[in-house]
């Protein structure tokens, strides 16, 4: 039996096949444009926004509207290829769902997400075995308060006391 030492990100071929199956199973069209956008998405090493994606497609033969890009990226989210990251305010970024290189710190006040590397946690998760279950990838979000919000809340408390 093949023993996998580390949990690795999925290969691009596996992801493309996953998307193809998703479209088939959900009765959606498998257009060259959708697969081209997926290719572009897979070139981003870290999180990206739809604006980043739009810029990366400027030199391509596909003229895709912002609305189409949003729709297509959401298809990737539904297919389990990407996950949405709230980066504070209305800003939304995306990253690969199987990105194992960092954990997320999310502020419960402003919603911003910071990415941090934690080699100890990764080593722990790579070694962790679950009964009757094979891990493909994992996602850790730690919730708390960012320094900006902590300062803002402190100032607000002071002002409230004065009133
Ligand atoms: Zn915050």
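^ structure tokens above, recovered residues below v
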């Amino acid at each position: 039996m093949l023993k996998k030492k580390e949990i690795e990100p999925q290969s691009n071929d596996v992801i493309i096949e996953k998307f193809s199956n998703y479209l088939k199973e959900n009765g959606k069209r498998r257009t060259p444009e959708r697969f081209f956008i997926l290719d572009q998405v897979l070139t981003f090493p870290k999180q990206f926004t739809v604006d980043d994606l739009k810029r990366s497609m400027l030199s391509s033969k596909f003229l895709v509207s912002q609305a189409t890009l949003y729709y297509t990226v959401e298809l990737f989210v539904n297919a389990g290829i990407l996950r949405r990251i709230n980066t504070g305010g209305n800003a939304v970024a995306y990253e690969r769902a199987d990105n194992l290189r960092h954990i997320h710190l999310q502020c419960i006040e402003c919603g911003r997400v910071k990415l941090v590397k934690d080699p100890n946690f990764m080593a722990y998760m790579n070694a962790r075995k679950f009964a009757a279950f094979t891990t493909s990838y994992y996602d850790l979000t730690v919730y708390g308060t960012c320094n900006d919000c902590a300062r803002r809340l402190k100032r607000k408390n002071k002002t409230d006391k004065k009133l």
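Residues 107, 109-110, 112, 146, 148-149 surround zinc ion (CB under 6 Å).
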